[in-house]
Hints:
By secondary structure, the chain is α/β, with parallel strands linked by helices. It has 4 domains: 4-196, Rossmann fold (3-Layer(aba) Sandwich); 204-395, 3-Layer(aba) Sandwich (Rossmann fold), CATH 3.40.50; 400-504, Arc Repressor Mutant, subunit A (Orthogonal Bundle); 521-597, HRDC domain (DNA polymerase, domain 1). 47% of the residues lie in helices and 13% in strands. β16 and β17 (482-485) form a beta hairpin. This is DNA helicase RecQ.
Amino acid sequence: MIDPRQILHDVFGFPSFREGQEEIVRAVLAGEDVLAVMPTGAGKSLCYQLPTLARQGLTLVVSPLIALMRDQVAALRHFGIEAGSLNSANDAEENRRVAEAVREGRMRLLYASPERLANTGAPEWLARAGVNLLAIDEAHCVSQWGHDFRPEYALLGDVRRRLGGVQTIALTATADVATRSDIVERLFEGEPRLFIHGFDRPNLRLAMQAKENTRRQLFSFLDKHRHESGIVYCSSRDSTEKLADALSQAGYRALPYHAGMAQAERARNQDMFLQEDGIVMVATVAFGMGIDKPDVRFVAHAALPKSIEAYYQEIGRAGRDGEAADTLTLYGLDDMRLRRLQIEESESSDEQKRVERQRLNALVALCEAPRCRRQTLLAYFGESAEPCGNCDLCIDGVMSFDGTVEAQKLLSAIVRTGERFGTEHLISILVGEETEAVRRFGHAQLRTFGVGADRSKAEWRSLLRQIYAAGLVSLELTEYGRWTLTEKGVAVLKGQERIELRSDVLMKPRERRRRRAAFEAHAAVPGDDPLLVALKALRTRLAKEEGVPAYVIFSDRSLVDMAAQRPANLRAFGEIHGVGQAKLDRYGDAFLAVIREHAG
């Protein structure tokens, strides 16, 4: 057996393994079955390619897409490795080449779709040809709990048995506990060696925004990425076509991709995206699995993804080269309603629907997260992390307030209307708008009519999203989207519990942009700036005295803003990012004193 490090250097040209690769490679070389969960861009393919070259025999690779097989085969052959694929796109000459190489024992890696293996006599033929390793890529497709379940993948356990119970390595980037258990049960006869190598992709900037004007928000995001390659995911074929046209008219090289297009056109657009620079692929989720383009600089979602797993998988197509990449996800109540309706109307079992509801709830909570998004995302996968400094909440900051009264107003409106109405009717009642429906039901006479007139409709929509994310209310989809209270909601309504809500998402778009622009304009304060060092020292002292984490006093962003703007009085200090009235009263004089000491 050849030393895997030598192969890594001599064949692939890499000086060292990436984190997690070597122990998986050595487990495979030791003959163990393996289930590996590794983040996108971590080099999963090498975990079965390298062991193949270190010993004799043929490796059969299950891959979900013809385009991915083609690209992998081409890459391997460029390394001088005999590789091929079994798929319907092969011409007669390629099929002959593959068959000869397998028969003569020259073929090292053979790629095939799950359909090709499950529905033909190929496994028996390959067993006779000497397959000694089965590698299953995108293994989450095996599981009914996976976000991308494919029935043909579920038959791969039988394919493995037809191959003679061959050694197997299954790989995926996204698999929670339920999905991992299902993969093990369906693919392996015994317990495989399990490797879980972190879900964190620190090079990805994470950002989410509530929808205000979807197209304007997308164009603002894309303007920062002109002439770069990226993907924009849409929720329907129609929206895909329209957005691709709009981007093209705006000067972007934008191409559509969805399942309703002719196969030849889809293949042509995908090839252009993979081979050329600066193309924006506007697509449904039909595009992306197995796309291995390293320099995708951004991924945007024009609508809420299906689940956290799907979100993670889709944003993971950016920045596979390890360089910085940008993400943006837009979401709204209509998205949440659509996703829930899709779950309820599916033919899934009651148990699977229950799991899918929980997954969607987790995604909604991520959208309205009150802390670092990466912390929330990684916590879902069972990992802990410090605040990342590379998400919108870390960069732009989060401001919260005691939202108990606002929540009670919403909850009261829901209860007083008999838990029978949807979002817009409830908001009309709160702001005191006498719509035709409000008059018809006599709801202008309710005590809650007009109690929320101090806030805009957009603010109330955001507050409703937040109490939904916090589990205070449920959305009854099959009954026209009516809202009902949960036990937790009842407790808040009765004053038995309080609720913290985010205030920053309630700002008017113009105010948010102004505050963000002000911060970006002044953010270039070096870490060793004397004033910033002194402000941090004061924050540390106060945090110790009060027994709270430092960020509870002020976030780093607030201190940077102070050091940059150097406010001279309490009024100016109140304009600093993250300074509300309570903090102004409590800390304003102390921090102003430090700022004055460094004046001039």
